[in-house]
């Protein structure tokens, strides 16, 4: 029975539908409020007419009630619609709020239906209502037939209206009685069923449409979200070259205030996109891209530096164009290419890029004037790097690279070959020009550097090769090898040298490599020995000290000069072991000499960098039993360059052991007086070049320099020793200048320990003390 009175298309309550669907159903009740108000006004007129014309008080009163119910219904519907129009349907934010509006509508139409039912019943039952029966039945039928279409959004409103009216009609027919009345009841029930089915159908259709619309809106919302959250801009263009779809990203890419939907492609490109493009032909090219018929791709750079990649795909009735910002990818690709061709520390070209440029230069130099290749090695870089750390080392490499770029300018190409080695590709091939540029490079790289508050100083050696002379086979590898051999020779000649490749260098390099291999075994085969040369007190003629000098005699190479094998020992890393050998054997040999004679041992810069020099010295003294004050350690100025503070710290620790420290070869290199200020040297040895020149007319400044050094030594309580004294004239001049000590062939050539015994030292001392200025020297 309940199903008979159910006007809803579903067993579920409308309230249980999704809120937007339920809300749309109820809002539909009020959307025709104005139109319904006109219809309701007709019923008000009907009520007024019957109230005036009816003789029966009951009919008159029920007519007045219909008028009041009509006004109330119109007022409720218009009020609800105005509220919805003003605040929007979304203001009904909950199912409870929607249901409250529905109940207001149900109450209004229910009261109206009850008033109409009452009037209908009185007109049908009372004899005085006969004149109004047709008019009333017409009004009732109009109200009933329009109910499903008017109120299908709320089936309970329809069922309330139709049930009240049909029940009232059937009751009136029962009171009237007769066949006609019973037939009327049957017709009324048939109408009721028809209204129920119509309402169900309309309600079901409406719910289905709303649910479909909701699904479509959800899909559209998702699609819109997807489009507007794409990493790419998107346009869909129809066959008429007009934009049909666009996402927000596209508008943002070009700074458009809104998506360009509806615009023609020509206006979009010409007026909105073209001003952002970089390049004179960019506008025409992009217009051609948009007007194209097939699939295509292209990239355009904007005035703000961004790079956009456009892609066009043809679809039915138009084209889809996507736009991607590929600036980051482009920069990443450039960075990858830069990393593959440039050194990350200095920013210079790396070995791979150098090889590429060298091959191109060789190819273009065929039949031309040629060019030159410089191989540059930074002197003392390793000392600075070890003393201050790789961070300072990298900053130093960066400064060195910058200085080389400044010197070379547009005249060549600078590359970092690896480590502290650089290569310069010079346009110049004339030796005079190459020497001039090489000298400028050495000067620039030898200038002091200040890095993070630390003052460091390095130098450079340069090897040069000229194309095509030094690479007749036209190969880059041959030219690089030639420059490398020239660099090898430059480093062997002393720091700061510039050497050109010559054919003999190949032999020299091979010899150095063979010597290096042999030197590794020299200690084990007892090929290294010591010779000694005395240092004499000029005034007293007594030997003050003896300097230990290393000698190497090889079965194949014979006697190898220290000037040749000491740099090799440093290069191959054998100097630390050899230095320890020299130190211990010199201390042991000195035990046989008079106690006032010190033993002087030269130290290499690498002995300060590698190993524990302090432990080596202490161990040698402990094992030999030599008194520390009889040991004199000689260092050169080059040791103090670069890692100045670290060397001073080690010198202070050595000095604390009781040994003496002497500064050797003073006057060469940088001859910084700050070294004498930073450390209390016991002795300063003036380089032999000044001694050779002091008696020569071509360099009278040597005497002034020696006098100044001697004065400094006296003020600082340092013994001054002149090296390389070979003549009586030199000795007399030194004595006149007040120099304390001398060393050289004049007194003795280097000799084995057995020849520098006490007797020989006494004999040399006696012979020296017997000599005076003007006396003839005896053999």
Automatic annotation (TrEMBL):
What Pfam families is this protein classified in? EAL, GGDEF, PAS_7
UniProt superkingdom = Bacteria
UniProt-listed CDD domains: EAL, GGDEF
The family database entries (InterPro entries) matched by this protein are listed as: Biofilm_reg_signaling, EAL_dom, EAL_sf, GGDEF_dom, Nucleotide_cyclase, PAS-like_dom_sf, Rev_trsase/Diguanyl_cyclase
Locate the EAL domain: which residues? 512-764
Provide the transmembrane region boundaries. Answer: 105-126, 132-152, 164-192
Q: Does the keyword Membrane apply?
A: yes
**Boundaries of every GGDEF domain copy:** 369-503
Q: Which UniProt keywords apply?
A: Membrane, Transmembrane, Transmembrane helix
Q: Which NCBIfam families match?
A: GGDEF
Against PANTHER family, the record matches this protein to:
BIOFILM ARCHITECTURE MAINTENANCE PROTEIN MBAA, DIGUANYLATE CYCLASE DGCP
What is the designated name of this protein?
EAL domain-containing protein
- Record organism: Rhodoblastus acidophilus (Rhodopseudomonas acidophila)
Upper lineage ranks? Answer: Bacteria, Pseudomonadati, Pseudomonadota, Alphaproteobacteria, Hyphomicrobiales
